[in-house]
Amino acid sequence: MNFSVAVLVGLLGQVTPENALDAKMRALFVPGGLTADDVARRAQDTSRELEGRTAALEGAEAQLAVARSGFIPKVTGGVSYTRLSEITPPTLGLGDEGRFLVTKGPAGPLGTREVFAAGDISFPVFLDNVALRAGLVVPLSDYLLRTVQQLRSAEQSRAAAEFDARVAKVKAGNDGRLAYFAWVRARGQQVVARQTLEQSRQRGEDIQRAFGVGSGSRADVLRAESLVEQARLLVARTDSLAGLTEAQLRLVMRAPDSEPLNISGHDFEALAPVPGTDDLEALVGRAAQARLELKSLDATRLALDAQRKTNWATLSPRLDATGNLLYANPNQRYVPNDGKWHFTWDVGVALSWQPSDLPVGLAQLKVNEARVRQTQAQLHAVEEALRVEVKQAVLALKESEVALESTHKAQASAEEGYRVRQELFTNGRSTAVEVIDAETELTRARLEALNAQLEARIARVRFDHAVGDDLEAPRR
């Protein structure tokens, strides 16, 4: 059931000019104060986890750029200079003293030819060698077996990192909203506790006066004093809780102690009903499509599967196309060397295989296969847990709606019961014990009504997260 209340105090007491609690609760709400969405945005802006996930995303994007560079052929280049030691150049000859013998004319009757010495033949030695080299290697087999899979793996890893960053952002926002509502609840409980203490003291004074004129007992006085002490303890506990929740809220927002924190009444307007909560299967399906945790795990699984396929490349022969350019002085392909600059080139293909890589490749293949199965198991576990989470969120949502109605009625009854007992006691028709019991019941009813209001909003936050609706603006 939905109640049209302007602010939270509408369910904390009867709205009359004499209701002190009503006035104190209204004083909690300040125009321009914090809303749950304000806290969520500041929590996202200052989240350490989101900061780390964003850095991981930048690293994944850099790895993707590295994978894309794998399609670029390997180009090498260099300039070299070599100084050779001096040697005595050898001569080429078949005759005496190293002279090259040359035959001339037709063979004679006895098969002889005229022979004469043509001179020494020697090759020059160039001591200064300069070369300009450029090379190109095109890894043909890698394009088909390794680089494509590495690119797919990097793309999926980048997608997983992006999902993780979005998960961290959503989580930071939800943590901020939950911290905000916990702080508001503590502040409200603080007001209720202080009002209870004030009422207990006033009632104790009334009972003390009645005892003084002989219309009460010593037991009534002691009971009233005990109630005051209980109220003092409640104030101390709510003060501690308010201080703790405020510290947690400041930590979530990174708000300094000097910054005043006030509550806006914006989040305590009437709650709109949530449609479709009776169709669990539809909600689970919606959650499965929207939840970023599932998308992150699925992207991680695909990235690991691509890595597993990459390992097969280390087990297969490697085929490379090569090309080289050489501009050198002297160029060794020119014989004899003439001490001049010459340009030459060569192209070819090379097929290679390293059997020694098999043990490592097979072991790494098994590692990646295990990681794929592990991630797949995690994905199934999250999918199964998602159903339970959605069911719990739906039940909590329905329970909060019932609590809003029942605590509203219970508080109205407690307010009226306390008023009647107080009047009867004033007229001498009720005992102090009955008034104290009514006051205790009123305090309990007020706290339960406050809790019901805050639990209803917390249930909305958790329901929106369970079905994946917190990726957009939160439901009110």
What would you say this structure looks like, in words?
- This protein is an alpha+beta fold and 476 residues long.
- The chain is 60% helix and 13% strand.
- It is built from nine helices and nine strands.
- It has a four-stranded antiparallel β-sheet. Strands 3-6 form a two-stranded antiparallel ribbon.
- Helix 4 runs antiparallel to helix 7.
- The two termini are 15 Å apart.
Structure summarized in a few sentences:
Helix 8 runs antiparallel to helix 9 (432-466). The chain is elongated.
Straight-line distance between termini:
15 Å
Provide the number of structural domains.
2
* CATH fold descriptor of the largest domain: Outer membrane efflux proteins (OEP)
Order of helices and strands: HEHHEEEEEEHHHHEEHH
CATH superfamily of the largest domain: Outer membrane efflux proteins (OEP)
List the helices and strands and how they pair.
Layout: H1 20-26, E1 29-34, H2 36-46, H3 48-68, E2 74-83, E3 91-92, E4 101-104, E5 114-117, E6 121-122, E7 128-138, H4 140-212, H5 218-253, H6 280-290, H7 292-314, E8 318-329, E9 342-352, H8 358-426, H9 432-466
Antiparallel strand pairs: 2-7, 3-6, 4-5, 7-8, 8-9
Helix pairs in contact: 1-4, 2-4, 3-4, 4-5, 4-7, 4-9, 5-9, 6-8, 7-8, 8-9
